[in-house]
Design brief:
The complex is a heterodimer.
Chain A: H1 2-21, H2 31-48, H3 52-73, H4 101-116, H5 120-137, H6 139-160, H7 165-169, H8 228-246, H9 251-258, E1 265-269, E2 272-276, H10 281-296, H11 300-328, H12 333-340, H13 360-376, E3 382-384, E4 395-397, H14 400-413, H15 419-439
Antiparallel strand pairs in A: 1-2, 3-4
Helix pairs in contact in A: 2-4, 2-10, 2-11, 3-4, 3-6, 3-10, 3-11, 4-5, 4-6, 5-6, 9-14, 10-11, 10-13, 11-13, 11-15, 13-14, 13-15, 14-15
Chain B: H1 2-22, E1 26-27, H2 31-34, E2 61-65, E3 74-78, E4 85-89, E5 95-97, H3 99-102, E6 111-117, E7 126-131, E8 143-147, E9 153-155, E10 168-174, E11 183-188, E12 213-218, E13 221-224, H4 226-229, E14 239-245, E15 254-259, E16 266-270, E17 276-278, H5 280-283, E18 287-288, E19 294-297, E20 306-309, H6 317-320, H7 329-338, E21 344-345, E22 349-352, E23 360-361, H8 363-366, E24 374-380, E25 389-394, H9 403-407, H10 413-420, H11 425-430, E26 440-444, E27 450-452, H12 454-457, E28 464-471, E29 480-486, E30 491-495, E31 502-508, E32 521-526, E33 529-534, E34 543-544, E35 549-554, E36 558-565, E37 570-578, E38 581-585, E39 591-592, E40 606-608, H13 625-628, E41 643-646, E42 655-658, E43 667-671, E44 676-678, H14 682-685, E45 692-698, E46 707-712, E47 727-731, E48 736-739, E49 747-754, E50 763-770, E51 782-787, E52 790-793, H15 797-800, E53 804-811, E54 820-828, E55 831-836, E56 839-843, E57 852-853, E58 856-860, E59 869-873, E60 889-894, E61 903-910, E62 913-916, H16 920-926, H17 929-933, H18 937-940, ...
Parallel strand pairs in B: 2-34, 18-21, 31-38
Antiparallel strand pairs in B: 1-30, 2-3, 3-4, 4-5, 6-7, 7-8, 8-9, 10-11, 11-12, 12-13, 14-15, 15-16, 16-17, 19-20, 20-22, 22-23, 24-25, 25-26, 26-27, 28-29, 29-30, 31-35, 32-33, 32-36, 36-37, 37-39, 40-72, 41-42, 42-43, 43-44, 45-46, 46-47, 47-48, 49-50, 50-51, 51-52, 53-54, 54-55, 54-57, 55-56, ...
The chains are: A mainly alpha, B mainly beta.
Chain lengths: 444, 1082
């Protein structure tokens, strides 16, 4: 008996030792880990320099990959398969495996992001540090979830690659028509080529076509002092002159600078040229999405849902906007003001390198605000600290819509858009946003 | 025995080792050895660095001259922030620092150039030191040290009104009004940033601080006469280079100013009445963009001054591909068309004087285009072989045009701080790579070619070298150099030529107050060669050289004669002069000099004639191939217009059909008894969508009336778009009816007719040079057989796969009675297609590899041996393309990124590897994955094509090659052909048109050649300086500008002979310009 007891004890000990060895804990993924992953991608995008339309694509696909994974598990959310253009059902996870869907979603998000940005090592560093933690916690769950995340990422990649992006890379440059004064001309100081002239050929997610919300044409070009166009031009010139005189304390100047969101501003100083870089308009609204999620205490799945829906609206917003830009091909205020009023005039913001109408920031702000209001409600007040790392202050807003309105008009204060591009632009964006809200049945 | 062998071997090794050291043309004695202890130390501070002052690294000055008249040249060195120094030459390369005693140390905060000149005309060299004043807290003024004759100086700038307080870089002495005293051109620099280009006419508005000044010596005070003399002085004059020379050889000195950044260089022609006409655009097709130092010398023995202008293009791949390159084509358009600037490209330019017509620009061909961040250039016969060599000083402490800095450095924290504070300027500076690099020396050779001897002639240092001056410091007859380095000791380059080759040095004792004879010209004749020099001491960059003339005469013992032309336009001749001596020459028995004798006495053969009624202007459409195919090496859409000559209305007189570019109607000129008049042929005009590239008028259906066949192309229409179908108009009694040709779609380049099957009607070869949007794929050319006026395709790969055809001729090259066909084209070898009784097969008749970018072929018995040779127009060697038999230029053609459209990547060989011509941004603009593979420019720079692409990717590419870029001729040697290149002047641009005719009425045919081509990106520049040439035989050639042709800056497409009233005229059809008609002058 004594022996037996000892034997039993031994066995128990042994079992507990073995159990100790396989002392797996469930891996818990917090919303913050997803936010950080998004932040990391935003930083890399700033470094690598992506134009606003290309940046919008880089946000959308990783979010969709992550969303499709959590929709497999969380009955609250519906898959986007069949709802957005040509997305089929992602592979199902092997039911015999120990899958942590949230982990898989984050893996897929990082993997997709890595494919879309240039400086891959900057994602790998972050990814590997997370992998190490997860592996230590629960190697089998980690391994299975990672495998699934990568599998979905491959599936989403295959779908993504058919969006015409690769083909648009080799399409022709935008041809500047230097004879017609109403047509867009490259602007100082870098006189860059027109950016992404074929972006309307990118496959949209929800829009029927890039021209679905084709806006009304801009006021007819005329340098007649009584024409609507001339008056709008004059308004840009006089407004910026007025607020520049007041200086940096001018509310309008502050608004213009806060919403600058230009990923590449070229600067010449002495013998040097360099670029000051900020996030894109899309990234700013992704930042507001983060703030909203945190403020509302959104859980992991809701966080992904919010990012996904917003980034889809932003991406379609850019497609819609770029379609109009290269259709109306309208000259920027800076060109006309330099030619007609003052050859030394400079806008408060650097004129970005593409045609004027409609304002891209207005479109995506309008679209994003609709989505965020739909998810988080109207009168959702928040403190926007997205731009603090670029030396800009925090601004507070009563609602997403007031933020969007301010973002839109900031372009006129900044001297880079006429009023029509702002007002029609935000409407165009709202239409895109409403379409996304109406068409996508994401939440039950 | 064995031991002896070892010893001998050992000695041999020693000797070889020693020899290598002895081969150095220049030795650099240390400052301790010579006593020339001077370092231009500058220190970056938070308040003063390249962020605050764009020319922070431009360095100081050097002036050399004998200040105490002991026949030993003394050295003056200025530094930016350190005190200036004067070193008295004590002989044997020993120098004494007499700065303190001489009182020349200076008081300005920031000194720049230093020059010597006899300002007060007392026969003693004075010193003028430039300063930057009124910027960054810099104070002081330009200082003038008047030589007291006792090795001391008195600062007297105010007295002479030369105490300017502006942003000066240098000053040059010249007697522009020939009144006998020395005036001054003061070179200032702008600090205007690049925030906006600003319009070129900014130069018309004078700015005291930045504008250049012409200062006339009015009996000892210098009056600013810039305004009335027509000298620009705007806020955009970034003056860094200044050269004085009588460029047009009329006896009055002219001025060349090199301006940095976007401002054009200035070429001031002296109007001989105290004013100047700035004439850059008239004489230069393009200039260097970031112009720095420059220099002038006659490099080709024609007695006319040639110019080099420096820039900052690197040859080294790691530097080249990580530095900002040229503008893109649209920005260039904006600069030139909207802002009024001239064409400027980032590289050194070598301008060869063509006597009152456009300069030939040959830097790429001559091998001197890329010497990195270059400051000073000095021509001199350093090895005394009778040819001008070239020394170029180099380097920059930090490269501000580094792409990683521009795109990425600024990203992080530094960025914010640059904007807000100056605290981390240092950090920003450290992110820029060093641009320390060795100086460069070229050996001059015949035929405008220079050979890089930096590895053999000089020690490769690692200094940042700027201002450089030349002198015979040790009085051994050869040319020594003094280089003012930044933050390192000044270098002396002591020439070791010594007695290995002969020299002649000349000094002048001219009339007061220009004792030193500034502006004196010397024509030296020896051994059948002319050498020409002109005495201006301010040369290179921020410096002045010893006031003397130096010639090398190799092994010749005497100089046949020298002709000295004095500034007052008189001359004297000295004969039979012994070499290896220094002559001091005073005016003696002078006679008036007739400058007209310097003009080349070619008999004009052509005279523009506007009375023929031909007023055709070709306007190219605004399609830019590079917008669609961003990596292609040149355009293919601009090869028109077509021209065809023949009787179109049955009146027995030849008429002229001109094709047109896309969407523009063609034009037809009918010959009447007195004039050509334009009349529309409705059915032809209606086809104006087409771009007409080639055309033929002939009676194809044998009805006694001529028909018209037009080959269309233009590379913008693609696939099976109708405008790619050629058009065939048959003449009826009512007019012309469009008839169908067999349905094939191509970009036609050439149509040639011949009855190849001897059935009595004209058959047609139609060549094609490209497939739209698919450059690199072989297009199909066709042979059409005529059957009673309707055509059918002769199916044969010999034609369909012939290549990228540009020209063809029907020639019975084997004299078998059947007309054979010779085809030329791009990325291919000329093809001899033998006609075997209507069946064609290729014959290998050329003895060497001869794949070129062939443009034209012309039969001509150039060697006058009775058999037919073939002249071949190629691309020329004056471009960034490089090709040789061992190392051909390669074009990789494939769909690199599998997106359904192809790319073509051109690579050239450099030091063991093949590199793509284009950089990361251009390549990644098409193949985005490269941005992932190379996340910095540093990663990419220096990578060969094999390192850039995976083997798998490269393996799927078709590789096309070019091993010969020179134009030349196929010399017929009993039915086989060997290639003989033309001389250098014919290699400066692509040769695009030939015509054979007896232009000089000597009973023998000549061939007239036209060229120039602009369908390339600013990376290549513009091939604009070929003036045309008349080839009489293999040894006789005259350039077009000397015989009355105006072909420079014109892209000639066709040359034809037309007749009017029985008289022949030359018709030159030009792309995007007015056609020219010349009368032939007998």
């Amino acid at each position: 008996m004594k022996l037996n007891k000892t034997f039993l004890l031994l066995i128990t000990l042994m079992i507990s030792v073995i159990a100790c060895k396989d002392n797996s804990q469930p891996i818990e993924i917090t919303p913050d880990e997803f936010h950080k992953s998004v932040d990391r991608v935003v930083d890399i995008m700033v470094h690598d320099i992506f134009s606003p339309p290309v940046a919008s694509r880089i946000f959308a696909y990783p979010n969709i990959a992550a969303y499709e994974i959590i929709a497999q598990q969380n009955p609250e959310y519906n898959s986007l398969a069949g709802q957005i253009k040509h997305l089929g059902e992602i592979p199902k996870a092997n039911s015999t495996k120990n899958i942590n869907y949230q982990l898989a979603a984050l893996v897929a998000h990082m993997e997709m992001s890595k494919k879309l940005i240039f400086s891959e090592f900057r994602i790998e560093e972050y990814r590997d540090s997370l992998y190490q933690i997860w592996e230590a916690k629960n190697p089998s769950q980690f391994e299975d979830s990672k495998t699934y995340g990568l599998e979905v990422s491959d599936f989403i990649t295959e779908w993504m690659n058919k969006d015409n992006y690769p083909q648009t890379r080799t399409m022709s440059k935008f041809r500047v028509d230097s004879e017609a004064e109403e047509r867009w001309q490259p602007t100082p100081p870098a006189y860059m080529d027109g950016l992404e002239p074929h972006w309307s050929k990118i496959r949209p997610f929800v829009l029927d076509s890039s021209a679905q919300f084709k806006p009304i044409p801009p006021p007819k070009f005329s340098m007649d002092e009584n024409s609507a166009f001339y008056k709008e031009l004059r308004e840009v010139y006089e407004t910026t002159n007025r607020i520049v005189k007041i200086g940096d304390e001018s509310e309008e100047v502050q608004i213009a600078q806060f919403w600058d969101c230009n990923p590449y501003v070229s600067v010449t100083r002495g013998h040097l040229m360099f670029a000051t870089k900020k996030i894109t308009p899309g990234a700013h609204w992704i930042g507001i999405t983060k703030i909203a999620c945190r403020t509302a205490g959104a859980d992991f799945d809701k966080t992904i849902f919010a990012y996904t829906k917003t980034s889809i609206a932003i991406a379609d917003g850019f497609i819609s906007c770029w379609d109009e830009k290269f259709r109306s091909n309208l000259v920027r205020p800076e060109t006309l003001i330099n030619n007609h009023f003052d050859d030394k005039w400079k806008p408060i913001l650097q004129t970005p390198p593409f045609p004027e109408y409609t304002s891209g920031h207005s479109v995506v702000s309008g679209a994003s605000a609709i989505i965020l209001t739909d998810i988080f409600g109207d009168n959702f007040s928040f403190l926007d600290d997205t731009e603090t790392r670029y030396g800009l202050p925090i601004r507070s807003f009563k609602s997403f819509n007031t933020a969007a309105q301010e973002a839109a008009i900031s372009r006129m204060y900044g001297g880079i858009h006429y009023r029509a591009a702002v007002e029609v632009g935000i409407e165009q964006g709202r239409k895109v946003g409403n379409l996304v809200v109406d068409k996508l049945k994401m939440k039950n | 025995m064995n031991k002896l062998k070892v010893v001998i071997l050992f000695l041999g090794v020693l000797i070889v080792g020693c020899n290598q050291k002895d081969d150095l043309l220049f030795k650099n004695p240390s400052a301790d050895q010579t006593g020339v202890k001077f370092t231009n130390s500058i220190s970056e501070t938070n308040d003063l660095n390249i962020l605050d002052y764009l020319y922070f690294y431009n360095g100081g000055g050097v002036a050399i001259g004998d200040i105490n008249n002991d026949d030993l040249p003394d050295i003056f060195l200025s530094g930016n922030q350190v005190k200036s120094k004067l070193f008295l030459n004590k002989g044997d390369l020993k120098f004494e620092d007499i700065s303190e005693k001489a009182k020349i140390q200076g008081n300005s905060s920031w000194n720049t150039g230093a020059v010597m000149g006899d300002v007060n005309g007392d026969g003693l060299l004075d010193i003028y030191v430039c300063a930057v004043v009124g910027l960054n807290g810099f104070n002081g003024f330009n200082e003038l040290y008047i030589n007291n004759g006792d090795e001391t100086f008195t600062e007297s700038a105010a007295k002479y009104q030369l105490d300017h307080e502006s942003y000066s870089s240098s000053a040059a002495f010249l007697d522009f009004d020939l009144d006998g005293d020395l005036d001054m051109y003061l070179l200032n620099h702008a600090i205007h940033t690049q925030e906006s280009f600003g319009r070129a006419d900014l130069r018309n508005k004078r700015s005291y601080q930045t504008g250049d000044k012409l200062l006339r010596n009015d009996n000892g005070t210098f009056t600013d006469v810039s305004e009335e003399a027509g000298i620009y002085g705007g806020v955009n004059g970034y003056g860094l280079g200044i050269a004085i020379s009588d460029f047009n050889q009329d006896g009055y000195p002219d001025i060349f100013v090199g301006n940095d950044f976007h401002e054009d260089d200035y070429y001031y022609i002296n109007n001989t009445d105290g004013t100047f006409s700035e004439s850059l655009k008239k004489y230069f097709g393009h200039t260097s963009r970031f112009s720095m130092g420059n220099d002038v010398a006659d490099i080709n023995h024609d007695g006319w001054p040639d110019i080099i202008s420096l820039d900052m293009l690197a040859d080294d791949e790691t530097v080249l591909k990580s530095s900002e390159g040229d503008d893109n084509i649209q920005i260039q358009k904006l600069r030139t068309e909207k802002y009024g600037y001239h064409y400027q490209f980032t590289r050194n330019m070598l301008f060869v004087n063509q006597q009152n017509s456009n300069y030939l620009e040959t830097a790429l061909m001559s091998g001197v285009a890329a010497t990195d961040w270059s400051w000073s250039s000095l021509f001199g016969d350093y090895n005394q072989d009778g040819e001008q060599d070239l020394f170029i000083s180099n380097g920059i402490p930090k490269r501000p045009n580094n792409l990683d800095f521009i795109k990425f450095a600024s990203n992080d924290q530094i960025q914010k701080k640059i904007d807000n504070t100056k605290l981390v300027d240092q950090q920003a500076l450290e992110m820029m790579p060093s641009g320390r690099t060795h100086n460069v020396i070229f050996k001059g050779t015949k035929n405008l070619m220079f050979e890089d001897k930096s590895d053999e002639w000089i020690e490769k240092d690692n200094y940042v070298s700027g201002a450089t001056a030349m002198a015979d410091l040790d009085n051994d007859g050869d040319l020594d150099l003094v280089v003012n380095n930044l933050n390192d000791a000044t270098s002396l380059y002591i020439n070791q030529t010594n007695s290995k080759a002969n020299y002649l040095k000349l000094k002048f004792n001219y009339t007061n107050p220009n004792k030193f004879g500034i502006g004196t010209k010397v024509f030296a004749y020896s051994g059948g060669d002319l050498q020409y020099k002109e005495l201006y001491v301010v040369r290179g960059f921020q410096s002045s050289s010893e006031p003397m003339i130096h010639f090398g005469f190799n092994k010749q013992q005497k100089v046949d004669s020298i002709k000295i032309v004095w500034p007052n336009k008189t001359y004297q001749i000295v004969k039979d002069i012994k070499v290896n001596q220094t002559l001091t020459i005073s005016p003696e028995k002078t006679k008036p000099f007739n400058y007209n004798t310097l003009l080349k006495k070619s008999k004009p053969l052509f005279k523009l004639n506007d009375s023929t009624g031909i007023n055709f202007v070709h306007k190219e459409d605004d399609f830019i191939d590079f917008n669609r195919q961003k990596l292609i090496p040149y355009q293919v859409s601009d090869r028109g217009p077509a021209i065809a000559i023949g009787d179109l209305n049955g009146d027995g007189k030849d008429d002229i059909y001109f094709g047109s570019s896309r969407f523009k109607p063609s034009k037809t000129y009918f010959q009447t008894d007195s004039i050509y008049t334009e009349k529309r042929i409705i059915s032809v005009v209606n086809d104006s969508i087409n771009e007409d590239v080639t055309a033929v008028i002939s009676d194809f259906n044998k009805d006694g009336k001529n028909d018209l066949l037009v080959g269309t192309g233009g590379a913008h229409f693609s696939n099976k778009m109708k405008p790619l179908l050629d058009t065939y108009y048959v003449q009826t009694n009512e007019g012309f009816d469009g008839k169908l040709l067999p349905e094939f779609y191509e970009n036609a380049s050439v149509i040639r007719t011949n009855d190849f099957d001897n059935d009595g009607d004209l058959d047609v070869f139609i060549g094609s040079n490209t497939i739209s949007n698919d450059f690199g794929k072989i297009p199909e050319s066709y042979l059409l057989e005529n059957n009673n006026g309707s055509f059918s395709i002769v199916q044969s790969d010999v034609f369909q796969k012939a290549g990228m055809i540009t020209d063809a001729i029907w020639e019975d090259f084997n004299n078998d009675g059947f007309t054979d066909l010779i085809l030329v084209g791009e990325w291919m070898t000329p093809k001899f297609l033998k006609n075997n009784n209507s069946d064609f097969s290729e014959e290998k008749l050329i003895d060497s590899k001869l794949s070129g970018l062939w443009q034209q072929i012309q039969p001509f018995d150039i060697d006058q041996d009775g058999d037919m040779d073939y002249l071949l127009g190629n691309w020329g060697t004056n471009s960034k393309f490089k090709a040789s038999e061992d190392y051909p230029m390669k074009m990789y053609y494939a769909d690199f990124d599998d997106n359904g459209s192809t790319e073509s990547i051109v690579c050239i060989y450099k030091k063991g590897k093949y590199y793509p011509l284009l950089g990361l941004d251009e390549l990644a603009g098409q193949i985005v994955s490269l941005k992932k593979k190379f996340t910095t420019y540093k990663d990419f720079a220096g990578k060969s094509i094999e390192e850039i692409f995976d083997k798998k990717v490269l393996n799927k590419a078709v590789v096309l090659e070019v091993n010969e870029l020179k134009s030349g001729y196929l010399k017929n040697e009993k039915g086989h052909f060997s290639f003989v290149p033309f001389k250098s002047e014919l290699q400066v641009s692509p040769l695009t048109a030939f015509i054979k005719y007896d232009f000089d009425f000597d009973g023998k045919d000549d061939v007239l050649v036209g060229g120039n081509y602009f369908g390339v990106t600013p990376f290549q520049g513009r091939f604009d300086s070929f003036p045309g040439a008349l080839i009489k035989n293999e040894n006789s050639l005259v350039l077009g500008n000397t015989i009355g042709l105006d072909f420079s800056e014109k892209s000639i497409r066709h040359l034809n002979i037309i007749t009017l009233k029985g008289k022949p005229y030359l018709l030159a059809t030009i792309n995007n310009d007015k056609a020219q008609v010349y009368e032939l002058i007998n």
